[in-house]
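User: Please fill in residues for this 265-position structure.
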């Protein structure tokens, strides 16, 4: 992308995304995707393809398509789908702001952890509305308060934390989704909320979630240095951020908003 980029890309990213999907309980999220035989379902911003694979497994008589901006992610997703023998699943490279699909191409669109990376998320939302069939369903899962909601906040790093994450993502995209759905003409808007299983940590962070953060920071280090003005400041901030996560007396909270809406028939 030429605006806000996916700032945490590394060569390990697809493996991290698959591991993160396990931490998040991605198989449980399939309950939000009411697939029926003959449906066409899009996983927009599919990354490693973990959710697309889950949908394809539980809906073998539906057609599932994953799309992502990076060729390497799509190559990885295709290899995993082939290894698992999923015949009803395909992947394409493309930008969610300019989807390469015809109007009314899909019955259901699923997205997760996507729109916070897009500087103009309404452009993507309008594309989702365009490629939904009349009566089709959008289900968008987005975090709210990501990495900036801590108790007790550490006064030494909290202001810098808010500054950095507002430069990397939109940490509060979740609460904005109902209004965005309404603004692009969708109806029957519903909101479900739960604790995000990856980024809500009470007390000392466990090794899997710590490793998840370490890989993300390795990819975001250069962008963080741009935001803070030097690599030294970025390194010091990242070290202090992880040290905070390692403390047994802290709590980090992140809410996951699962927002669904329909295209008028």
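Assistant: Residues filled in for all 265 positions:
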């Amino acid at each position: 992308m030429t605006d806000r980029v996916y700032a945490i890309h590394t060569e390990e990213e697809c493996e991290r995304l698959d591991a993160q999907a396990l931490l998040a309980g991605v198989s449980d999220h399939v309950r939000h995707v009411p697939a029926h035989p003959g449906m066409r379902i899009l996983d927009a911003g599919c990354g490693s393809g973990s959710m697309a694979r889950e949908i394809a497994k539980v809906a073998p008589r539906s057609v599932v398509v994953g799309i992502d901006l990076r060729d390497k992610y799509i190559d990885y997703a295709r290899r995993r789908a082939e290894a698992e023998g999923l015949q009803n699943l395909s992947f394409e490279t493309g930008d969610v702001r300019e989807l390469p699909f015809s109007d009314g191409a899909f019955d259901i669109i699923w997205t997760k952890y996507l729109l916070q990376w897009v500087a103009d998320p309404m452009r993507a939302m309008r594309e989702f509305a365009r490629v939904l069939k009349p009566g089709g369903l959008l289900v968008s899962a987005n975090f709210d308060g990501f990495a900036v909601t801590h108790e007790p906040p550490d006064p030494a790093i909290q202001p810098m934390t808010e500054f950095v994450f507002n430069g990397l993502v939109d940490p509060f995209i979740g609460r904005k989704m109902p209004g965005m759905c309404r603004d692009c003409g969708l109806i029957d808007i519903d909101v479900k909320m739960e604790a995000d299983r990856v980024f809500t940590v009470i007390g000392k962070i466990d090794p899997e979630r710590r490793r998840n953060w370490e890989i993300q920071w390795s990819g975001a280090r250069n962008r963080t240095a741009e935001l803070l003005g030097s690599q030294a400041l970025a390194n010091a901030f990242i070290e202090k951020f992880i040290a905070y996560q390692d403390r047994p007396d802290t709590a980090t909270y992140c809410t996951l908003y699962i927002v669904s809406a329909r295209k008028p028939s």
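For context: The mean pLDDT is 94.
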